[in-house]
Amino acid sequence: MAQIIDGKAIALKIREELKEEVEELEKQGVTPGLAVVLVGEDPASKIYVRNKKKAAEKAGIQSFEHHLPEDTPEAQLLELIERLNRDDSVHGILVQLPLPKHIDTTRVIEAISPDKDVDGFHPYNVGRLATGSPLFEPCTPKGIMELLKRSNIEVAGRDAVVVGRSNIVGKPVALMLLSQNATVTVCHSKTRDIEQKIGGADIVVCAVGRAEFVKGEWIKEGSVVIDVGINRLEDGRLVGDVEFEEAAKRASHITPVPGGVGPMTIAMLLANTVLSAKRTIKG
Ligand code: NDP
Q1: pLDDT the model gives residue 282
Q2: Residue 172 CB–ligand 1 contact under 6 Å
């Protein structure tokens, strides 16, 4: 039976460590600040923003919430970002996605100063990650690597299969695994023989967004399974992209859903904000 990777407990520990780092920063006269920008009334986004704000405050990070109406013109949002870029009390800027359709998401992401891009979505930070000198790494993939590290899972030399190639999870986590010397295969909707590829993997990271897409019997005996997916079933239950019960019988380690990767995402957002605040001291 697999060891369950308790993302909730690990995230909590990281948040406590960050709180201590924030106290140290305070002594040097810097209070880390995170600006969270929400446009519109999307209920899921509202919950995410509230949780991020709460977590920041618990860690001693100052949070600045900017809630703009759904019909906010793009120019006005860009103006706000410019203001936040110049504001020394703001170390991290997060624009909650998705944005309303009339706003160009790429333009907005590119307007955020790369030095305050705590989501790690700006092409500058994507490029730094791709060239092996990361500054701000995207939060979910960073959280996955932290889970592996804190669970003492060896990455170097192992065969990793990433299912999903989105810019926020699949692609960056593949780059991170590669930079830690895994041999990485990235699968997507056009991949053939996915079952076989997963069956050969020592580490499987699944970020597809389809309930129990990966069957437990595909998993190789002793492999590590990181399930990023969050899917709500008709009966209200939350499940991942992997058939948990069956996979857990074969894997050496597995993340549950909920309580695996999810809690790490916010912890890494806070970590990036603290990192950004520290950089202002080091010059
Ligand atoms: P996207 O929808 O952006 O990407 C999904 C990826 O899965 C795409 O690359 C797609 O391939 C691939 N895919 C779809 N169908 C198949 C298939 N049949 N076989 C193989 N690959 C397939 O999703 P995200 O990356 O944003 O998110 C993935 C999941 O992770 C979601 O459930 C999301 O809710 C969850 N998530 C969880 C987070 C957390 O904090 N725990 C954070 C972010 C996301 P193609 O590119 O060819 O279309």
Answers
A1: 66
A2: no
User: Widest CA span of the chain, in angstroms?
Assistant: 56
Active site residue 52: yes
Q: Is 171 known to be catalytic?
A: no
pLDDT for position 283:
56
Q: Tell me the C-alpha distance between 170 and 181, whole Å.
A: 17
Q: Which of 47, 162, 169, 190 gets mutated to test ligand 1 (max ligand atoms within 8 A of its CB)?
A: 169
Q: Which whole number is the average pLDDT over 131-154?
A: 98
What is the position in ligand 1's atom list of the atom closest to the CA of 262?
A: 41
* Average pLDDT estimate for 207-235: 97
Catalytic residue check, 196: no
CA dihedral of residues 132, 137, 141, 144 (deg, nearest 10)? 90
Q: Would the pLDDT of 17 be above 60?
A: yes
- Type of residue found at 177: L
The one catalytic residue in 6, 53, 96, 202 is 96
Going from the Cα of 169 to the center of ligand 1, the distance in angstroms, rounded, reads 8
Q: What is the structure's pLDDT at 155?
A: 98
Q: Locate 28 and state its tokens.
A: 């040097």
All domains of the chain, ordered by start, with CATH?
A: 30-113 (3.40.50.10860), 139-262 (3.40.50.720)
pLDDT, one tens digit per residue, over 74-117 is 999 999 999 999 999 999 999 999 999 999 999 999 999 999 99
Cα distances (Å, whole numbers) of residue 6 to 151, 247, 262, 282: 9, 16, 11, 34
**Residue having the nearest C-alpha atom to atom 47 of ligand 1:** 189
Summarize pLDDT for 36-82 with one digit per residue, the tens: 999 999 999 999 999 999 999 999 999 999 999 999 999 999 999 99
Q: Which of 6, 115, 117, 119 is catalytic?
A: 119
